[in-house]
Amino acid sequence: MSYIPANHPSQPEPTIAPYPPASSLPPDNYDTSLNLPSAGNSRSTKTIKTESKTDTREETSTREETDLDLPPVILGGGQFGYGIYDDDQGVLSDMPVRVIRMALRSGMNAFDTSPHYHPSEIIIGNALKCLESEFPRSSYKIITKAGKYGPTPRDHVYTPETIMDSVQRSLKRLHTDYLDVVYLHDVEFIATDPYPSPAGHHLPALDPSTSEAKTFHLDTTTYSPLGRGDEIILGALGALRTLQSAGKIRKVGIAGYPLPLLLRLSLMILHTTGIPLDIVQSYAHQTVQNAALGEGYLEAFTEKAKVNQVVNAAPLSMGILTTRGGPDWHPVIASKSPLEAVCKQAVELCQQRETSIEVVGTDFGFRVLRQQDLKRVPVVIGCKNLQEMERTLKSWWAVNNSDGHVKEIGEVEKQVMALFDQRGVRNWSWQSPMNA
User: Fold this and answer.
1) What's residue 436's pLDDT?
2) CA dihedral over 10, 14, 15, 19, signed as positive or negative
3) Could you give the CA distance from residue 286 to residue 302 in angstroms, rounded to a whole number?
4) d(CA 178, CA 367)
5) 8 A C-beta contact, residue 270 and residue 306
6) Does pLDDT of 51 surpass 70?
7) Do 288 and 361 form a contact (C-beta atoms < 8 A)?
8) Model pTM score
9) How far apart are CA 39 and CA 142, in angstroms?
10) Compositional bias (Polar residues) spans (predicted)?
11) How far apart are CA 104 and CA 401, in angstroms?
C-alpha cells in the first residue's frame, strides 16, 4: 500500500506515558444520587410516558449471558482525541482518567472509542489500567471500531488483514484480551451505492414505493451486494466474525451516519450471510432536530433486519445543538448548510425562554427510547471534564425518574421542534461522506 493513513495499524505506535497510581489522583466529589441505574439483570414493571399516551408494560431485562447489558449512557471517546473536541494539553492531562473514574463510579461503565479518535484508545486503556484495582475488567464494557484511520475516503481501509491487525492493536492498547463490541467504522465511506449518501429527509425511504427508497435500494425484498464496496464490507465483517469465534470480540456490528444506508447494509448482511448483525450505531439521529431513529428506523433495524441492539450517539449532534456551535470540521459547518443558521435560531429561542439549547437537546436526547423487545437504546455522549460529567448525569435524571416515569416533551422542546419543522430541516440529514 503506497499511501498509509495516519492512524493505520502499520504506523509506528506513539509513546504516551501511563498514568500515575490511582492513589495519587485528586479526589473527585460528586452527588452519588446521580448514579445511573444498573445495567444488570432485573425484572420490573415500568410506566413509559410519551407525549400522546402512557404505556405500561412489563420490562423483562433478564438477558442471556451473551447479551451486552449496556448502561443507559455510554462515555464517548472522541473527547480524548487530539483536536477533536479538546486540545492536546487537555487530552494528555490527568483529566481523562478522572473523567473515566467518575464514569465508572456513577454507572456509566461502557466506553466507545476508535483508532480514528487518536490517541483515544491509548488514553482509555491507560486510564483503565490505572484504575484496575478498583474496577476489574469484568466491571465495564469496551467498544471500539476498525477500518477508519483518517477523515478522507482513502483513509478507510477494510481489507481483512488490516481489520485483524487493527483489532489486535486495540486489544494491546486497551490492556485486555477481549473487546465487547467492534464496529466497522463509517461504512458509508466504503459502501457501493448511494455514494455519497445524499442529504435530505430520509424517513420516506422506509416506504418501498417512494423515490427515496429507490435511491437507497430499499425498494426490494432481496438484498444482495451492489458492487465492490459492499463486497469489501462483507469481507471485513468476515474478519470480525473470525475474531468473534476466537473469543477476541463479543459482538460485531457497523457504525455510521446515514440511516437508510445502515439499514440496507444490515439487510444485505442478514440476507447474504444468514446471520444478523449484533449491533448497529448511528449518530445525530435521535435529537431535537432529527429523530428519524425513533420515528421509524429503530423498528426497521430490529424487526426487519433482526439487529439485536441499536445504539444512538451524539444527542447534541456533535456540537451544532450547543450555544457555542459545532467545531469547524462538522459537516454542517464545513458545507455551509442552511441547518447551521436554523440551529443558531434555536439557540436564541431557548435563551428567550430562559433556558439553553443544551438543556432542551439533552432532555430530548436522553429520554429513554426502547426497541420492540424493550431493550433500551443506549446514548453515547462525550465529556471532557468533571463538570460535563456531572451535567450529563443531571440531564439524564431530569427526564428519567427513578420510578420509571419518563418526563413528557416540554413546551420549549415543542417550540424548537416546530422551528426546525417550519424551516424545513426537521428530520433532515446531511450528506455523508462530505468530501467524496
Assistant:
1) 58
2) negative
3) 16
4) 31
5) yes
6) no
7) yes
8) 0.92
9) 14
10) 30-47
11) 21
Task: Report residue 12 as a C-alpha cell.
Answer: 509506528
In a 13 Å sphere around the CA of 79, the CA atoms on its Cβ side amount to 24
The gap between the terminal CA atoms of the chain, to the nearest Å, is 21
pLDDT above 80 (res 85): no
Tell me the domains of the chain and their CATH numbers: 69-429 (3.20.20.100)
**Band (167; pLDDT cuts 50, 70, 90):** very high
pLDDT value at residue 29:
85
Residue 56, pLDDT > 60, answer: no
